[in-house]
Amino acid sequence: MAYLALLAGFAIAGQAAAQTSQPGTLRGLDLPGLSPQGGAQRSGPAGPAVRTRHVTAELLSEHVTLRPGTTAWVALHFRIVPNWHTYWRNAGDSGEATRIDWVLPEGYAAGDIVWLPPERLPVGPLVNYGYSDEAIHLVPITVPKDARPGTDATLTANASWLVCEEVCIPEEGVLKIGLPVAGDPPIAGFREGPIFAKARAALPKPSPWTAKYRFDGNRFRLDVAAPGLKRDVIEDAWFYPYDHGVVKYAAPQKLTVSGRALTLETRRGKAAKPFAQVGGLLVLKERLADGKAVTQAFRLAASEAAPAALIGFWEAVLLALLGGLILNLMPCVLPVLAVKALGFASHASEGRGMARHGAAYTVGVLASFAIVGAVLLAVRSAGQAAGWGFQLQEPVFVLLMAYLMVLIGLNFAGLFEIGGRFAGIGSSLAGRSGLSGSFLTGVLAVIVATPCTAPFMGAAVGFALGQTAAVALAVMLALGLGLALPFLLLSMAPALLRLIPKPGPWMVRFKQFLAFPMFATAAWLIWVLSLQAGDAALLGALAGAILLAFAVWLWQASSGASGRWRPIGIGLAAVAVVTAFAMVRFADSGMPAPVRADRTPESAAAAGIVWEPFSEARLAALRAEGRPVFINFTAAWCITCIANEKVVLRLESVRRAVDEAGMATLKGDWTRRDPVITEHLAGFGRSGVPLYVIYPPKGSQKKPMVLPQILTEGGTIAAIRSMAEETRRAERSGD
Asked: What is the pLDDT of residues 392-401, one digit of tens each?
């Protein structure tokens, strides 16, 4: 009885050991058939050991029996003498990976070695990847369905390995293990359980993150989109590439962790040209809250990233300043600038006082850009993918913007005036309520500027969002200064002020005229909302706009009423306003907009290019077919994008050029937040749309071609034909 109790105790202990795993995000093995089965455990699923002067090698089985139609797991287990080591699949600067040639019964099949993460093994100026003390090489064995219970299967591994200290010695051995076939669930081995449990805890998991790599001269850079990682938690990270020549093994790998990505930079290896894909292990050492350190490995495959814009700080500041200046000419901002011009006309007689209004307007612009930059950085630090115009990806913000445009339009139309306490909206925006009106005009200019992207802005903002907070805010302020600069200079130039027409009745008519661009902006924003949140949000927004107009009319009508009618009118106006803002729930319902199919090929000739939805997989598939790919990254709220599509991309000449080039066309819709598109934009050093990229076919040495943010017919056709000619040249050279 005591003997049976002791045997049961050992069985329970072995089962517990087989099921343990390290803490952290690594939980068990994701490969089929490796987890222990239930049942009693036995000792002995191991073949005779092969012993050399430096290595003791054994062939172990996780279970003492095999079951037909399942996957069994075996392990080539090395115990290595101190100061010596064997090698990983990529041995590093020198060495050779362990190999196994199998001899198996008919119908049985062995998979590849499932490699555990290696160590970095410095040898003089070199660094190798391998294992010291112990190495466990797991291999899956497929048991055929017709394997007969009651028979034995002998698995033979002809193994060869290189074991090194300062000298290297090739060794080999023939290892065999015989296992019975049984119809019952496999029985786990008692002695081998802890070894397989240890391997299971260390096995790499599939990476939950996408990754990009880039060769930049003699540098290698790996960007892993890992939102939520914190630098103070990640103690160390190292990338072990599967292929030789990707990195210089002895070079340090510089780690950078932001709220949205983990980046490793090191020296490039001896690879002559970029790989189609760089696979490898990302090994992270993480410090848990209780102070314990956990090491985890992730299998990842990094695709080649497009080269980001290589600009420095001062170049980014200059580009931002130029982009801000050009932003004044964009259709988003023109109505607000007309409002400011009207304010200048009303103050033209003040002389030097105009400088104060110009300064107040500039401060409003700069303060707003600082807030936008700070919020954008905070969002990205929190692990969310975001870029220029990110707030317009939120349906609630779009609805509130539409309401604001309706109210401003009603004010310009003369339906109501707002007193001093609410200066800055309505007549105050025209400049008649003092410096606060000029300040808030600057705020409004920034709000309405976000749907537009001017030339030079994309590279500058993309650079900024990859830098420290101080650098990012400096670039954003340069962008704001560019937007404010024309009015700032005008306010400080008395000679130019004399050119502004004198105040008169024309100002009233012009102000009323400005109501219509505001109403048009509101209509466009409501249309964008319908694309983001569907028909319910559209109906709610229209009803809310009507309720706001009704509330304004009630307020104005009640102001001249007497007796009980005044509080009744004001109360009803308040109810209308509350009801209008209650419509926000339709925009925030999370219901997606209905899917709108693109045009059919039959209608393409009349309507321009036919676009397929963008995805990384579709891009890779089209390039693998030998086709160049034109990608249009756009958004419904992006005025610049819409203008390019209407003016250039719908032209018959552009469509014909695309067809003649055999070019595929993809559209990346960024109307609502899409982290995949955000990361793709970041790969080109951009943080917003539009972005137009023409990719060459897979295998071409030509880099992706980035088109200007403001398209022209001639330039777009020339870019398409240039890539088509490069494709034909590559095909001829390959024949």
From this structure: 677 887 888 8
